[in-house]
Amino acid sequence: MTKFTLGIVIAVGNQKGGVGKTTNTVHIAAALGLRGYRCLVIDLDPAAGATRHLGVPENSYAGSLELLTTDETLVGLVIEDGMPKGVHLIPSRPQLSELDTLLSKFEDKTRILDRPLSAARSRYDFILLDTPPAAAATTTVAAYASSEWFLLSAFPHPLSLGGLSEAFNDIADVRKHRNPELEVLGVVFTNVDGRAKRLRQELDQLVNEVLPGRRFQTSISQAVIIPMLSGKGKTLFQWNKYERNPVAQQYRRLAAEVEYRVLNRES
User: Which stretches in the chain have pLDDT values below 50?
Assistant: First the structure.
């Protein structure tokens, strides 16, 4: 168990949907929780994928919308019951898509996460922001502007090339205009089929050219069990057979890589 609070904010995303972003968010948080860290997942996507994956019914709780538009406190909105070990959640719901209409027209929308993240940093070691797959979305822009790290999710599929390229360009733009401290934590490939070696090599080459040393050594294999458990509102680590599951062990190794990179960031 850590002796002090790290307060590290990691935005997780990609400009394309369906690339394992939410699956990575909740499983990295759960794997870090097993390592003794206190983790908070903030669901910033109106699709509420992380919320459902963690077993919270849609529209059953106030959450990120209230966190960003009212005086509700982080403590008053966080969900603890039924979560993986060491993990808490600020849920989302479809009404988050109305965020822009509820914010003052004079408010700096890039800074709307500053207040809640200030509170979260004092209570949690890792705060993972599950962002919507749209670079121009208000919550995505705010996540970029407020995070120390950005973790990219990608499938080993030709469409991922376009999504990665867009993400690289957006991150460069954010660093230039909004948040010079933002750094790419790494690129993780999920749903990997060991037979698609040529495509995987092309994606590896792209990452190594644009972001040398930023591809995680650990990749996440295809696994039918993940969507099955997701439908039940559970992560792999809430399954009694997880210690024998190879994908669960991949996520544990990935969490160890995340921990190492965060704790050994070059100044």
Answer: 1-2
Closest CA to 146 of 174, 168, 187: 174
Indicate the pTM of the whole model: 0.93
* pLDDT at 1 (0 to 100): 46
Terminal C-alpha separation, the chain: 25
- Structure-derived torsion over alpha carbons of residues 41, 88, 120, 27, reported in degrees to the nearest 10: -40
What type of residue is 113? L
The closest alpha carbon to 87, from 44, 119, 55, 117, belongs to: 55
Q: Residue 152, exposed/middle/buried by CB under 10 A (0-12, 13-18, 19+)?
A: buried
Q: Give the number of other Cβ atoms within 10 Å of residue 189's Cβ.
A: 24
Return the amino acid letter for 18.
G
DSSP state of 192: B
SS3 230: helix
The residues that bridge with 90 in the sheet, in sequence order, are 42
Do the beta carbons of residue 143 and residue 13 sit within 8 Å? yes
Would you state the pLDDT for residue 158?
65
- Determine contact, residues 34/172, Cβ cutoff 8 Å: no
**The two structure tokens encoding residue 39:** 């983790």
